[in-house]
Design brief:
The chain has 12 helices and 11 strands. By secondary structure, the chain is an alpha/beta fold.
Length: about 400
C-alpha cells in the first residue's frame, strides 16, 4: 500500500552513555526562532550550504504542498534506546502532529538502554511504514547495518543521535540534530559579547571559563570544541577548565562539587563564565555559585534550554543568564515532515533536505538545519509561543507536558 500511495503522491504533491572518568584540562546577539518550513538563510556555517546538484530538491519540510489526508494513515514508530522527559515530550508532540497535521499514527518503543533489545526488536516493527529512531552511539555501526539489511521494508531517519563518523563528521543517513559546534560557538560568543552588560568594564584578564561536559556522548564533543575555539580566539591567555562528568552518576552533587572545586581552586580568577553541555548541569551549577556568594561574578549559560528555562519558570535567575534555544518542536516537526516525505516516496534518504546539505557533513546526506537562538529570561516565553504558533498554527493548540 505504501509504495502504491507513493507513486500516486509523486504526481500529486524532531547517551551513548557513560565511560571514562572526570578530567580537568586547562587550556550573537539574539535572533528570531526562524522557521521549520524552510532552512535558515542568515549566513555563516550554521546556514544551509547547498552542494552537488545545481538545483537541489526542497522536500521534507513542514511547508511541503501536500494533502496528507488524501491517503490512508501511515503507521510509524518512535523507536528509542531509552526514555526521558524530553523524549516523552517529543512522543506526545509526534502523536498530536501525526494525528492532526501529517496523518500518521505513532507508537512508542523504548529499549531501556539495552542495545541488543534495540536491534533485535526492529523485526517486530518491520511491517510499519516508518521509524524515527534515537540509538546508542556505541552501537551505531551495528544498528546501521541492520537498518540497511531491512532495505525498503520501512523508511527511517535519526533524531538527536546521527549516524556519523566521529572524526570527519560525515553522515551515513539523514538526521535531525542540533548542530553541536554551532551550539558551543553561539553560547560562548554570547557570553563574550554580553558580559559587560552584567559586570561593566572589568579587567578581561581576570575572567575564566568552565565548560561542563559529558564527553562520552558524541554529540556533546563538538560543543566543547567550539567553546574552546571561540574562547581561545578571544581570550588566548586566560584559564579554561573542562569538567567531564563521564563515568560518574550525573547528580546535582557532582556538578555542585565540580563548580565549587574549580572556582575555589583558582583564586586568581575573579569572574567566571560557566557553560553547560547538557540540561542537567545548569541548576546545580547555579546553586554552587549562590552558596559561594559569587552570583554577581558568574554568568551561566547552557547548550540546551530545558534545564535553564525550568529554573526561570520557577522564578530563579541568579547567574543563569542565557541558554541556547532549540525547542523540542524544532526537532519533532522536521523529523515528522522528513519521514512523511520518505514514506510518500517524494524523497529518498539522499534527496531529503537536499537544499540544506553542508559540505562538513559529507556529500550524500543532509542534517536538518535547526535554527538556533539565544534565550534569556526576557524572551524565552515569547520564543516558545512563537515556535508553537508556527508549528501548530496556534500556540494554544500545543499539547502540554503532562
Amino acid at each position: 500500500m505504501k509504495k502504491v500511495l507513493a507513486l500516486i503522491l509523486i504526481f500529486a504533491m524532531v547517551v551513548s552513555l557513560f565511560a571514562c572518568g572526570k578530567t580537568e584540562t586547562e587550556s550573537r546577539p539574539e535572533a528570531s526562532p526562524g522557521t521549520v518550513g524552510t532552512p535558515p538563510s542568515s549566513g555563516g556555517e550554521s546556514a544551509a550550504a547547498p552542494t552537488g546538484a545545481s538545483e537541489p530538491t526542497h522536500v521534507g519540510y513542514w511547508d511541503d504542498p501536500v494533502d496528507h489526508f488524501s491517503r490512508e494513515p501511515y503507521r510509524a514508530v518512535f523507536y528509542q534506546i531509552y526514555s526521558n522527559e524530553a523524549i516523552d515530550w517529543q512522543y506526545r508532540a509526534l502523536q498530536y502532529l501525526g494525528k492532526n497535521v501529517m496523518n500518521v499514527e505513532f507508537e512508542f518503543f523504548n529499549a531501556n538502554g539495552d542495545n541488543e533489545k534495540f536491534i533485535n526488536s526492529l523485526d517486530l516493527y518491520a511491517d510499519r511504514d516508518g521509524i524515527i529512531l534515537t540509538h546508542n552511539y556505541a552501537a551505531q555501526k551495528r544498528v546501521l547495518e541492520v537498518l540497511r539489511e531491512y532495505g525498503d521494508k520501512f523508511d527511517w531517519l535519526n533524531v538527536m543521535t546521527p549516524f556519523q563518523d566521529d572524526a570527519t563528521q560525515e553522515l551515513y543517513g539523514p538526521a535531525v540534530v542540533i548542530d553541536g559546534y554551532e551550539v558551543g560557538k553561539l553560547s560562548t560568543q554570547w557570553l563574550i559579547d554580553n558580559y559587560r552588560s552584567y559586570w561593566g568594564e572589568v579587567d578581561p584578564s581576570k575572567i575564566g571559563y568552565i565548560f561542563l561536559n559529558l564527553s562520552t556522548v558524541n554529540v556533546f564533543r563538538p560543543r566543547e570544541q567550539a567553546a574552546r575555539d571561540v574562547w581561545t580566539e578571544n581570550f588566548p591567555d586566560n584559564l579554561m577548565l573542562v569538567g567531564d562528568a563521564s563515568g560518574q552518576q550525573i547528580t546535582a552533587e557532582l556538578v555542585y562539587n565540580m563548580v565549587t572545586s574549580y572556582t575555589t581552586g583558582h583564586p586568581e580568577v575573579e569572574y567566571w563564565f560557566i557553560n553547560c553541555a547538557m540540561l542537567m548541569f545548569p541548576a546545580p551549577a547555579a546553586r554552587a555559585i549562590e552558596t559561594l556568594g559569587m552570583t554577581d561574578r558568574a554568568l551561566i549559560t547552557c547548550c540546551e534550554s530545558q534545564g535553564v528555562t525550568t529554573e526561570w519558570d520557577a522564578g530563579s535567575v541568579g547567574a543563569l543568564v542565557s541558554c541556547v534555544g532549540a525547542s523540542e518542536d524544532l526537532l519533532t516537526a522536521p523529523a515528522l515532515s522528513g519521514l512523511v516525505a520518505l514514506m510518500d516516496g517524494r524523497a529518498t534518504q539522499e534527496t531529503l533536505w537536499e537544499d540544506a546539505r553542508q559540505e562538513k557533513y559529507g556529500g550524500k546526506y543532509s542534517m536538518y538545519p535547526i535554527p538556533l537562538t539565544i534565550l534569556t529570561p526576557d524572551n524565552y516565553i515569547q520564543y516558545n509561543d512563537d515556535v508553537a504558533a508556527e508549528i501548530y498554527g496556534d500556540a494554544s493548540l500545543k499539547p502540554r507536558p503532562q
